[in-house]
């Protein structure tokens, strides 16, 4: 009989429900998981959402007060999928209560809040997993193996970009995501951690950056505080100012000597979720796009003078693909990556060791984000350092 671990999920919008479903599916794909999750408490500030999610996913109870979930004596692990402005308070409280945490990025409004969570986790000696799930994509894991093996030769060029259109409509509601007090950083916090983590996971540390930013849609329709958990359009209404960036682009220098560019946008018309990277070496190249999650474009010198990319499909030989599908050409999906993340989280707890991606990886990513933020202000190159950044961006 597997040992059970009591779990609470705090924040029950789309992502919180993805966490809940991941726990339910865990043994379908990872029957050897050392722990069996027991869904104890579903927590959300909106009573109807808390109650309905508890009923839908089979939680033993629900609450509108996240503190009840954190303090519950039968809860040992907590998933946190709330808005950014609640990340620090909940995560620090959970760690100090001795609860292990599975936390969605960006883990706070600004890098300083991430570092505070990291200190609390380290001091409490609890385990952490962070929602940087794109590193679990099987063809991304294969790409990492190819790069590490030297199959592409010396890596010289890198391009990473996450271009999205979720905020491209000027009538998109002015929710907490566009305010300093609610979100802190804009795309630098919302999607840059994914882009930076993929880059550093594949090529190693970024050591310096030169960045620029822009707010393209400067006003949006006001809505009551707390209204909505996603992105929705409002026709008419009073307009309010957007307080954080829609767009960031950046030149990067890797410690390995490689050079690259990184670009993020939430208002890019055309792409929906073009989270992608391209890597070029002296003997080959590869590229990947989340919108074609199960495909890797690979170019290698083949010895006969023929050159060009070929498509390599995810297969059971890559990462954990075989746990979800039996053969190449059958697609994995986004929610599957969260099941892998749930397994990583529970395994780290059972084995009492840190498994990536955890606080170490998100701190490394946010060090780069903080340097980008400084560069946007200074207009020059900034070194990725170890200092604790200012909290000026929160608007608190």
What does the model show?
- This protein has 396 residues and is an alpha/beta fold.
- Helices cover 32% and strands 25% of the residues.
- The protein contains 10 helices and 17 strands.
- The chain has a 9-stranded mixed β-sheet. Strands 3-2-1-4-5-6 form a 6-stranded parallel β-sheet, with helices on both faces. Strands 9-10 form a two-stranded antiparallel ribbon.
- Helix 4 (84-96) packs parallel to helix 5 (111-124).
- The protein is globular and about 65 Å long.
- One of its GO terms (molecular function) is oxidoreductase activity.
- This is Oxidoreductase.
- Residues 5-130 form the Gfo/Idh/MocA-like oxidoreductase N-terminal domain.
The number of distinct structural domains comes to 2
N- to C-terminal separation? 49 Å
From the spread of the alpha carbons, the general shape counts as globular
Query: What structural class should be given to the helix and strand makeup?
Result: alpha/beta
GO molecular function: nucleotide binding; oxidoreductase activity
Domain Gfo/Idh/MocA-like oxidoreductase N-terminal: 5-130
InterPro entries: Gfo/Idh/MocA-like_OxRdtase_N, Gfo/Idh/MocA_oxidrdct_glycsds, GFO_IDH_MocA-like_dom, NAD(P)-bd_dom_sf
Domain GFO/IDH/MocA-like oxidoreductase: 141-286
């Amino acid at each position: 009989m597997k040992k059970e671990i009591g779990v609470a999920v705090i924040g029950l919008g789309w992502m919180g429900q993805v966490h809940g479903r991941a726990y339910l599916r865990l043994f379908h794909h990872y029957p050897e998981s050392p722990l069996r999750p027991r869904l104890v408490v579903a927590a959300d500030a909106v009573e109807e959402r808390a109650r309905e999610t508890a009923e839908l996913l089979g939680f033993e109870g629900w609450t509108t007060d996240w503190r009840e979930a954190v303090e519950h004596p039968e809860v040992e692990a907590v998933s946190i999928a709330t808005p950014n402005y609640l990340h620090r308070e909940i995560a620090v409280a959970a760690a100090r209560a001795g609860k292990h945490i599975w936390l969605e990025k960006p883990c706070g409004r600004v890098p300083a809040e991430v570092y505070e969570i990291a200190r609390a986790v380290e001091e409490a000696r609890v385990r952490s997993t962070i929602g940087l799930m794109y590193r679990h994509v099987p063809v991304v894991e294969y790409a990492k193996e190819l790069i590490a093996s030297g199959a592409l030769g010396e890596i010289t060029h890198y391009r990473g970009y996450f271009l999205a259109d979720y905020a491209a409509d000027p009538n998109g509601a002015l929710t907490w995501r566009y305010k300093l007090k609610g979100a802190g950083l804009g795309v630098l916090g919302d999607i840059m951690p994914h882009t930076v983590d993929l880059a550093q996971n594949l090529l190693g540390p970024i050591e310096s950056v030169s960045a620029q930013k822009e707010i393209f849609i400067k006003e949006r329709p006001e809505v009551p505080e707390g209204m909505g958990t996603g992105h929705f359009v409002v026709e008419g209404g009073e307009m309010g100012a957007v307080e954080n960036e829609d767009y960031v682009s950046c030149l990067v220098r890797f410690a390995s000597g490689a050079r690259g560019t990184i670009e993020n946008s939430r208002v890019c018309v055309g792409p929906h979720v073009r989270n992608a990277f391209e890597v070029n070496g002296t003997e080959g190249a590869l590229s990947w796009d989340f919108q074609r999650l199960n495909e890797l474009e690979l170019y290698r010198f083949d010895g006969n003078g023929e050159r060009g990319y070929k498509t390599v499909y995810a297969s059971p030989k890559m990462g954990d693909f075989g746990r979800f599908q039996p053969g190449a050409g059958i697609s994995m999906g986004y929610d599957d990556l969260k099941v892998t993340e749930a397994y990583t989280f529970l395994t780290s707890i059972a084995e009492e060791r840190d498994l990536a991606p955890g606080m170490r990886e998100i701190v490394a990513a946010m060090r780069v984000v903080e340097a980008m933020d400084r560069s946007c202000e200074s207009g020059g190159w900034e070194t990725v350092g170890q200092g604790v950044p200012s909290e000026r961006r929160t608007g608190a």
